[in-house]
Design the sequence.
């Protein structure tokens, strides 16, 4: 019988550009490590499929129910790290070197007009608690929307609000392949290897709720 698992805390959240062939990248070499995640700000925002009832005059209940929208899966979080590195990765800013004497923006970190963050592969690792192991979640392809939020003043601090939406994941031939997988992280010398589950974007949408 599978042991129940409680999910607690965030150890790390990593982002790196999604691969062209839909494979999961090596997150040890991820390009961006999301820091200073606002406490308890991560929230799942899965939406249910939309349906339309087809009714006829001589039946009280619907004759058919057509799925018109498959819904979406993802999560949001707030990040207090507003460093130059965060601006550069999340919003495409770049620093103009002092050596560029003819550039009026030398020494400044400036925006890049029309920048769009490429689809991202994402890894989330939670924290172990009591007898529950840490969990690792990986998404092969997500759209990440970045918005500045919060206030600047004595009553609060600004932040980046990130919205992650899982996208269809395909191989080089355009065939849909799994885009989300989970794994329990066992301690060194544990009695059994970590369990692994992989969910395709279509299969996972059939599961209820936003549990991981």
Sequence:
């Amino acid at each position: 019988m599978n042991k129940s698992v409680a999910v607690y805390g965030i150890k790390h959240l990593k982002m790196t550009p999604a691969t062209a062939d839909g494979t999961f990248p090596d997150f040890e070499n991820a390009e961006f490590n999301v820091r200073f995640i606002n406490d308890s700000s991560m929230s799942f925002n899965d939406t249910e499929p939309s349906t339309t009832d087809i009714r006829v005059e001589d039946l009280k209940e619907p004759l058919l129910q057509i799925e018109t929208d498959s819904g979406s899966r993802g999560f949001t979080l707030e990040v207090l790290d507003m460093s130059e590195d965060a601006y550069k990765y999340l919003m495409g800013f770049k620093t103009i070197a002092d050596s560029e004497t003819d550039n009026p923006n030398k020494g400044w970190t400036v925006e890049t007009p029309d920048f769009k963050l490429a689809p991202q592969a994402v890894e989330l690792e939670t924290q172990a608690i009591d007898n529950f192991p840490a969990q690792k979640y990986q998404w092969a392809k997500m759209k990440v929307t970045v918005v500045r939020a919060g206030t600047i003043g004595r009553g609060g601090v600004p932040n980046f609000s990130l919205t992650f939406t899982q996208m269809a994941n395909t191989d080089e031939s355009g065939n849909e392949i799994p885009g989300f997988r989970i794994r329990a992280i066992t301690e060194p010398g544990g009695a059994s290897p970590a369990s692994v589950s992989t969910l395709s974007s279509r299969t996972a949408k059939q599961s209820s709720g936003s549990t991981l």
